[in-house]
Every structure is written in C-alpha cells, then in structure tokens.
Amino acid sequence: LKRNSVLIVDDDKDIRENIQTLLEFESYDVLLAEDAKQALGILESSNPKPSLILLDLQMPRVTGEMLLERMQKEPQIAKIPVVVITASSRPRPRQALEMIMKPFDLEFLLSTIKKYCSN
Amino acid sequence: MRQVLGEQILSRIAKIAGIVVLIFSSGAFFLWLLGTPELHHSLCSLLKPSTALCFTLASSALLLLQTASPSERPVTKRAAYFLALFVSTVGVLSMLHQIYGWDVSVDKLIMSNIPGGEARHYPGRMSAVAGFCMFLLGISVLLVDSPSLKRRAHLSFLVLTPVLLISLVAFVGFLYDASPIFRLSFVTLTWPAAINFVILSFCVLALRPSRGPVYYLNSPRPAGILTRRVLPAILLFPVLLGWLVLKGIYSGTLYLELGVALLVVGIVILLCSVLGLNSGSLERIEAERDALFERLEEAIRSRDEFLSVASHELKTPLTSLKLQAQLRKRILSQGNVLFFSPEHLSKMLAGDERQLEAINRLIDDMLDVARIQAGKLSMHPELVDLNEICKEVVERLSNEASSKGYSITLHESPPVLGNWDRFRIEQVVSNLVSNALKYGKQKPIEISLRHSDGVARLCVHDQGEGIAAENQRRIFQRFERAVNGTAVSGLGLGLYIVKQIVEAHHGQIHVESEVGKGSNFVVELPLMPAPDLEVHA
C-alpha cells in the first residue's frame, strides 16, 4: 500500500514543524514549503504528486489565494485536493475543499486530512 | 450642549434688566403719586400711572420667578403667577374700556388719589395697545413652563411676538417722529413703554434658556453663530436707512419716490449680503464636516485593519502552542515515552518560550499604544549608559539573529551617560534592531553610537529592502507599515512607540533610506532632557 503524502505550506516555521511531527506519527509522508514559490517548485518536480495540500492563506508576498490561482494553470496540480488554514476571517477560496481556522484542534485537523486522502 | 453664555450669567443679565425696569417704572409711579400738575403733564407722554404700576408688578413677578428654581419654592412661584394674572387683567380691562367704553374704573381705582388727576381726559389709563401688550406679557409669564412646541419653539415666545412687533413699530415711529400716529395717543405706545416691553420680553424668555430664541442666540453651533452675526444688522440697518431717507426727503434733498427706491434697494442689498454670508458659512461648515467625516472613516478603517492584523498575529503563536500541547498529549497517550528525550524536550520547551514571548510582546505593544493614547506612558528617568543598553540588547537578540542568518556589529564606543528611562530606551533600541532583523534581508546589521554637544546619536543600519521616500514619514504613524498588508508580520506599532518614547525624551528620530540599499534609523537624544518627561499622543 502506498503512503499518503501531504504538502504543508505555511510561513510559520513552528506550525510547519509541529504538523510535520504529527503527520509523521500518523504514517504520512510530509513535504514542507515556507512560501508559494517553494510550494510550486515541489508541486512541479514531485512524482507522484502529493495526496493533499495544507495551505496557509496569509503569507508574505504571494498569498495562499494567489498560489491557488496559479495552480489552476496546470491540470496535474489543479486536481490535488486543498485544505486551507487561516487565522483571519476571509472567504474560503472556491478551489479549496475545506477551511480550518487557527488555532485549530489537532483531532479535527487529522480527521479532515484523513477524509481527503485517497489511499 | 454648552451654550456661549452660561445659564448663571444669562440669568444674572436678565435679573439686572428686570431690576432696571422695576426701578424705572416704580420711580415713575411714585412721581405720579407725589408730583405737581406740570410734572404730570410731562409724565403723561412717557408712562401713564397704570402702565407704570403694571410694569412694576410684571418686573417683580419676573424677579420672583428668577429666584425660584423651576422645581422648588411653589409659594414664590404662585405669588409671581398671581402678579402676572393681575397685570393681564388690568391690561385687558383697560383695552376693553378704551375700545368699547366698558368702564370698570381700573384707572380710578389705582389713581383715585392723584391730585388733579380727574381734570385730564385719560388721567391714568393706559392706551388700548398698551393694554393689549400688558395682557400678552402677563399671559407669557403664565405660560413660561408650558411644554415646548416643535423644534424648541416656546409658547411664551409666540405670545410675545405681537408685543415685540408693536414695540418695534412704536420705537421706530418715535425715532422717525411720526407725529400723526402719536397724536392718537390711545392706540400707541410711548417709547419708554416700548423699551420696557422689549426688556421684559427678554426677561421672560431668559427664564428658560434651553428653549425659544434665547437658545438660538446663545448656541455655540452654526445656527447660533449666524443668528448673532445677522440679527443686529437686520434690526439696525433698515431702521437707520429709513431714518436717513426720511431726513433726505424732509430736507428736500430727495423726493419721495427716489427715497423709497433707495430704501428698497438698501434692504435688497442687506438681504443679499445676509444670504451670501449664510451660504458661505454653510458651505464652509459642510466642507469641514466632510473633512471630519473622511478623517473618521480613515481612522475607523485603520483601526479595523489593525484589529484584523492583531488577531492574526496573536493566533499564529497560539496555534503553535495549542498544536504542541495536543501533540504531546496524543503521543503520551499512545505510550510513546521515547519521544520525550531530554534534547527533544528542551527543544520543545524553547519553542514554547518563543511563542509565549511573541504573544507577550504583542500585548505589551498594544498596551503601550493604549497608554500613549491616554497620555499615560509614564517615564522614570535615571542616569543610564546607552552603550551598555545597546550591548544588552545585542546580547539578547543574538540567538534570534544567528538563527535567522544575521550578524550584528555594535561599534566600540565609550560610555554615553544620560538621564533617561532605562526600560523605555531599551525598548527603542530593541524595536529598531528587531525591525532590522525583519527587513534586513540577512545582510549585516550595524549599530553605532556617538555623542557631542550634549546629544547622543544612535544609528541602526541595515542593508535590506529600504523604504521608499513617500513612506518614510508614514512608518512612524500608528498601525502603519511601509510594506502593505500581509507581506511581513507585525502590528505596525513598533516605530510609532519608538517615536513617542524618543519625543517624550525631547529627542528626534528619522530614517535615511533608499529602496534596495537598506535603511539607517537615526535617534538623537539630549543627554539631560528637561525634567518633565511626558508623552503627547
């Protein structure tokens, strides 16, 4: 059975690493990106593509929404499910399946990830 | 709403006016009682005995009401109302006597013992017009506490309007020497009576300054300012112009048609100027209000943005802390004790400390801004060494700097001693260096310190993104950052707080910067600032 892999995109190092620790305990493969540029690089180069993207909306320079727009241009990347995370009340981007508000509950995060991971 | 003249001053003016009328009319009355026929003859064209008596009683009633506050002393109030009722009755009876000849001998009742009084045609009787005005004056006193009509209109004022108009006609007529009218003495007022009516009307209206024309005359708002500015012109100018035209006609300089034409043109000019004045003022008031409204909207927008940024900034460390706590609980519950090795545990605790420190700093900043706004940022000056403070700050931030890939150089300097608030100056240095760590693009940061002519000069220099010229003033304002919105985290309070602290020490701060080449923040602090360290928001 192939392991699910999750790409975490968040500009806050501590949040990235904490989610990584959690997901690795739950037997996920984890990829990390600290901004939209790195995330795009990983998405383009990785094969197979990640099963799910956890995306922070409020990031410096290129925001989560802008990254989502750019992902739409490549069909291979556009079909990866996206769950967005945010601390401020802004509307859920239409490309995202679900929106999680910071500070979130660990169990809720896990169940949401489980719901959208295919394998 | 505060009025231009306080209620006490207003009531004092009204009291003095009432006393003047009281003295004048009671004096006239006693002269009637004591005087000779020659004196009576001249008094007759000034104030009739019954008129003088009624004025005496009416002014007494008003003085009584002025001493009684609206809610208490019912006896005083009742006495005043009784006097007013009496004045009204005498007025209405005199009027009926003059018009219909119903003789109830009011005047004889009052004047029966005037020596030689009976010899004259109307010994003590007031004219029909005076009687009518007296009747209305008494009624207006009785109505003083009646409920307000629409828009602060006052029932007393409605009743007094004919009195004021008649008085104006009488006064202007006297001024113009309109003898044909005045010869028919039973339909006119004498000029002292006209003046007395105007003064007493004012006293009645001044009893309740929150209503009627007194409110508008005394209002600090545009309506009041306009009323005060325009009313004297409206009252005086036409009267004066009419007097001049009449003089011209009598002397033969003007013929009648030209005189009237000049009068009309003069009044048209007056009305147009009043209109122009009003339009100009209204326009200016409206523009001021618009500008104020824009500033308010801007302030609300910037506060809303601040709240949203602040909650985001607080939630980020909170998210990490919550995640960590739940993660540890989960791992423990799975029995995975090996996860908590001493190295791992100390790393986790350092992380927690960092998050807590971040939350603490955010809250401190918000509290400082609130204190500055309230003018309560207190300063405790003592003799401190700025060089020592810089060393401590660099030492404290060295871990953060190296983890982010920065090097900080503090240039060697002898001690720079000054009379400053140690904690606040440390905050200044620390905020400036933290900013450099945020915007410095991982390039070396330099701090230098000198002093000359009693002023310490601190420079914090980075080689980062730099600040565009148009933003260099804005960054010191509240809630502002050079880069917009979400690009770099932070509340946009740091430099605002720094500037307030520096200015409280009577110092200055500015930035020298070029986009792409970095920024140099320069703080100049007097070594011995004046003892009154204060913060002005």
Description:
The complex is a heterodimer of chains A (119) and B (537). Chain A is an alpha/beta fold and 119 residues long. Chain A contains five helices and five strands; from the N terminus they run βαβαβααββα. Chain A has helices at residues 13-25, 36-45, 64-71, 75-78, 106-116, and strands spanning 5-9, 29-33, 52-56, 82-86, 98-101. In chain A, strands 2-1-3-4-5 form a five-stranded parallel beta sheet. The radius of gyration of chain A is 13 Å and the shape is globular. With 537 residues, chain B is α+β, with helices and mostly antiparallel strands. Helices cover 63% and strands 8% of the residues of chain B. Chain B contains 16 helices and seven strands. In chain B, the strands form two sheets. Chain B has a five-stranded mixed beta sheet with strand order 2-4-5-7-6, covered by helices on one side. A two-stranded antiparallel sheet of chain B has the order 1-3. The two termini of chain B are 26 Å apart. The model of chain B is unreliable at 115-121 (pLDDT under 50). The interface between A and B is medium-sized, with 23 and 26 residues.
If interface size is counted as residues with C-beta under 8 Å from the partner's C-beta, which chains form the largest one?
A: A-B, 23 and 26 residues
What proportion of the residues of chain A is helical, as a percent range? 25-40%
Separate helix tally of chain B: 16
Q: Overall 3D geometry of chain B?
A: elongated
Number of helices of chain A: 5
Query: End-to-end span of chain B in angstroms?
Result: 26 Å
Strand content of chain B: 5-15%
Rg from Cα of chain B: 41 Å
The arrangement of helices and strands of chain A along the chain is EHEHEHHEEH
Write down the oligomeric state. heterodimer
Largest sheet of chain A, in brief, is: 5 strands, parallel
